Every structure is written in C-alpha cells, then in structure tokens.
Amino acid sequence: MSTVKVSVPATTANLGPGFDCIGVALNQYNHFKFSPIESESPNLTIAITGKEAPKVNCDSTNLVYQSFLRLYQYLGQTPPNVAINIELGVPLARGLGSSATAIIGGLMGGNQLAGEPLSLSEIMELAITIEGHPDNVVPALLGNCQLSVGEAGNWQICPIVWHPDLVPVVAIPNFELSTQEARAVLPTNLSRHDAIFNIARLGLLIKALETGNRDWLIMALDDRLHQPYRQTLIKGFNSLKKASLSVGAYGVVISGAGPTVLALTSSEHAKQVSLAMTNAWMHAGVEAEALLLSIDFDGARVVT
Predict the structure, then answer these.
(1) Per the count of CB atoms within 10 A, which of 173, 202, 241, 253 is most buried?
(2) CA 78, 81, 86 angle in degrees (round to 5)?
(3) Do residues 148 and 15 share a domain?
(4) How far apart are alpha carbons 206 and 162 in whole angstroms?
(5) Is the CB of residue 281 less than 8 Å from the CB of residue 173?
(6) Judgement on whether residues 44 and 132 belong to the same structural domain of the protein
(7) For the whole model, what pTM was predicted?
C-alpha cells in the first residue's frame, strides 16, 4: 500500500428553498494524506495543519478516521494502521461543509488503501448515511451543483447547470454556529401555503441557475423552511442582505446551516457585493472575510 492523498472541496448547501437537497462544490479545499504504518505501534497518528487545527481532535474520535473505519467495517475488513495528515482550508462550523470534506476524505482514503473495492455510488451511499442528509456530501464527492432526491438505497442525483456568469460570494464571520443549534430552531410543522411557496421557488431556482435570469433568481432564492428561523442566530444578517442587494446581488442566503452568508451575483458586481457584505458586518460588530469563489466541477480528487 502506498500513501494516498485526497482533496475535497468545500460546499454550500440549501441555496434558499433547496433545504437538505441542493448543494454546490466550491473552490476551497481540505487535503488529507493517508500513509500506512508498517509497525503495530502506534496504530494511528493524526497531524493537522491550518489556522483552526487546534480545534480538531487528533485521536480516534476524529471524523476523518471515523469515516475511514466505517469503510472497513462496511467491507468486513480490519483497518490498517495509518498516519493521517490533514491540511485545513475550509473553515470549521461555518456552513461550508467542513464535516462533509472529512467524511468524503476518510471514505475515499480508506477505499484507495483497500484497493478501490467500492464504486463512487457506494461511497456516496455510505457518506449520506454518516452525514444524515445528502446536500453537502454529494457535491463534495462529485463536484458541481447537485440535486439529491430519494432515500437510502434509492438516490437519484441530478446535476444542475450553473450559468457561467453567476459568481458565488461568501462572507465568513468570526463566529461559529453548530448544525445542531441551527436545526433546533426549525419548526416541526409547516403550513400548506409555505410548502407551496418553497416548492414553486425550488422549481424556479433550477431554471434561474441554468439561465442566470436575474429576476428569477431574486424570487427563487427566497425561502420559508429554514432561513426565517436561522437568520435570528446570525447577527446583522438583515443589514448584510440589504446592503448586498443594493449593490447588485441577485439574492442573499444562509450557506448551509450558517453562519456564513452566500450571495449570488454577476462578475461585474462581485467585488462590490463582497465589500458590502464585510462592511455591513463590520458595522454590526462582526469581523468577516469575503471570498469571490467559483464552482468546483471535479469533486473529490485522489492522488496515490
């Protein structure tokens, strides 16, 4: 067995009305290296680099290693002793799919060291089972913008065409928001009126992303399933949204569970939108970094 390197892109999920079913791969990455350990002791070492490295567990509870183990459990094999090196490029607990990169990285690394017994679709099924929903792990694995529909053992994955002039701009604040906390504020029931509201906008969103139609996007990115509740957890969200729309953003949504905020705009207005986002948060007392990103069309990549 040789050393395996896996690069996995960040993701932004939901895109307004696409709650738990739409995700997009972005050109920010976590990198993972898996090297077999020949001796029996130690059986695991984990080294992590990056600004947020001290926040990540370096023992057997690490999500990358847990996903690595899950693959071997699925195969019914004993996992090899391994040294894992993690290079962090995706912020933690910010709504950019850091946990999805860990899951995909662990599964892909394990599959390579095992001799590639599993197909991409089998890896995808395992990843969805571990994560609990497909919106982040599917684009992290496959790249592109992906719509995931179905249930365990019967997933239909539909790539969504992304218009080349649509620029995703993310504003990443200096505070975290756990997915568990973001889910806790969601209502348990939804009115028929709100259900129809989201169904209509999800259909429109797919066409708007394909065509880049500004008027369609402005309407399609609205939502009543999760954003009205989650935005209460994100300080300054309304001011940031208003400022972004005033300088040319087509729409402003919560990225994943938050607190990162995503704006979609044209290349012409992307810089102004990024400045408006950081300035609005600065006035609210929040430090933030804005990034002009692009779509990753390759997904997880493996080098042996």
Answers:
(1) 173
(2) 120
(3) yes
(4) 9
(5) yes
(6) yes
(7) 0.95
Query: Hey, how many other C-beta atoms are within 10 angstroms of the C-beta on 284?
Result: 16
Q: Which amino acid is at 229?
A: Y
Please indicate, yes or no, whether residues 140 and 174 belong to a single structural domain of this protein.
Answer: no
Q: What is the DSSP letter of 295?
A: B
Q: 78 and 189: one domain? A: no
* Beta-sheet pairing, 261-266 with 166-173: antiparallel
What tokens were used for 7? 């690069």
Nearest-angstrom CA–CA distance, 67 and 265: 36
* Residue matched to tokens 């400045």: 275
Domain with 143 in it: what CATH number?
A: 3.30.230.10
**Crossing angle of helices 237-246/270-283, nearest 10°?**
150
Digitized pLDDT (tens) for each residue of the chain, 304 residues in all = 689 999 999 999 999 999 999 999 999 999 999 999 987 777 899 999 999 999 999 999 999 999 999 999 999 999 999 999 999 999 999 999 999 999 999 999 999 999 999 999 999 999 999 999 999 999 999 999 999 999 888 999 999 999 999 999 999 999 988 888 999 999 999 999 999 999 999 999 999 999 999 999 999 999 999 999 999 999 999 999 999 999 999 999 999 999 999 999 999 999 999 999 999 999 999 999 999 999 999 999 998 7
* Close Cβ partners of 24 (under 8 Å, ≥ 6 residues apart): 11, 12, 13, 15, 139, 144, 145, 146, 162, 168, 295
Q: Distance between alpha carbon 157 and the CA centroid of its chain, in Å?
A: 16
DSSP, res 144: S
| Structural domain of 241 | 166-292
Strands, DSSP E only, in the chain?
A: 4-13, 22-36, 44-49, 82-87, 145-151, 154-160, 166-173, 251-254, 261-266, 288-292, 301-303
Q: How far apart are CA 30 and CA 51, in angstroms?
A: 12
